[in-house]
Amino acid sequence: MIITHQGQTPRIDPSAWVAPDATVCGAVTLGPGVRVMHGARIVGESGGRVTLGRDVIIYENAVLRATSRHDCRIGNYTLIGPHAHVTGAEIADECYLATGVTVLPEAWLGPRCDVRVGAVVHLKTRLPEGTVVPVHWVAVGDPVEILPPDQHDSIWARQKPLDFPRTVFGVDRTAPDFMITLTRKLSDDLAPHRNDIIVDGAGAGI
User: Fold this and answer.
1) Is the separation of the CB atoms in 48 and 31 below 8 Å?
2) Does the predicted model carry a pTM greater than 0.70?
3) Please, which residues have CB within 8 angstroms of residue 22's CB and are 6 or more apart in sequence?
4) What is the mean pLDDT of the chain?
5) SS in 3 state form for the chain?
6) In this predicted structure, what is the pLDDT of residue 168?
């Protein structure tokens, strides 16, 4: 399904292919040879842009998202596995993100990184070229530290100063009624989807 959001219609190269039950919404550009498989979701929210280079493969049920605060860019010849979730990050050429990987806003992955099953690349984290993040491990910080999931205290010590709520949502974690403020803000931010338009056919060519 190709959807125009806030006047932005996805730009899809004629050689790319989007499965009929996938969703491509808003300010999204798909380069030559891109394949978006069944159930995947690629969404440019509120002015945020998602850009995929040449021969990028997005497997089933993966989610790529940009927001007004964070664009999302995927380099050439990169594969994103089933159920992976990438928001507002930049991923260079020839990277491999396995099943269930999470990459959070302002992360940067250099060329030929290998992020393995269930691993997390945290907010504002930079992975140098060729970095491997092991199965279910967590990469956090700049310079990066790669930690096993059972080291929560060490992960949190690196993660807390990155201030996820303020960076991603623009909300102070210590504010009274934090979740009320957060969800009301998100409700307002996402309200323009009520005016989305489903586009017939395969979308607009580049």
Assistant:
1) no
2) yes
3) 1, 36, 37, 38, 39, 40, 41, 42, 58
4) 92
5) CEEEECCECCEECCCCEECCCCEEEECEEECCCCEECCCCEEEECCCCCEEECCCCEECCCCEEEECCCCCEEECCCCEECCCCEEECCEECCCCEECCCCEECCCCEECCCCEECCCCEECCCCEECCCCEECCCCEEECCCCEEECCCCHHHHHHHHHHHCHHHHHHCCCCCCCCHHHHHHHHHHHHHHHHHHCEEECCCCECC
6) 83
How is residue 83 written in tokens? 């159920």
Q: Does residue 46 register a pLDDT over 60?
A: yes
- Tens of pLDDT, residues 74-122: 999 999 999 999 999 999 999 999 999 999 999 999 999 999 999 999 9
Tell me which residue has tokens 């990169």. Answer: 78
Strands 28-30 and 126-127: unpaired
Alpha-carbon span 29 to 114, nearest angstrom: 24
* Distance linking the first and last C-alpha atoms of the chain: 17
Q: What are phi and psi of 169, to 5 degrees?
A: -115, -10
183 vs 150: CA distance, rounded Å: 30
User: Token pair for residue 30?
Assistant: 């798909």
Residues contacting 116, CB < 8 A, separation 6+? 98, 101, 132, 133, 134, 135, 137
Residue with tokens 């996402």, as numbered in its chain? 190
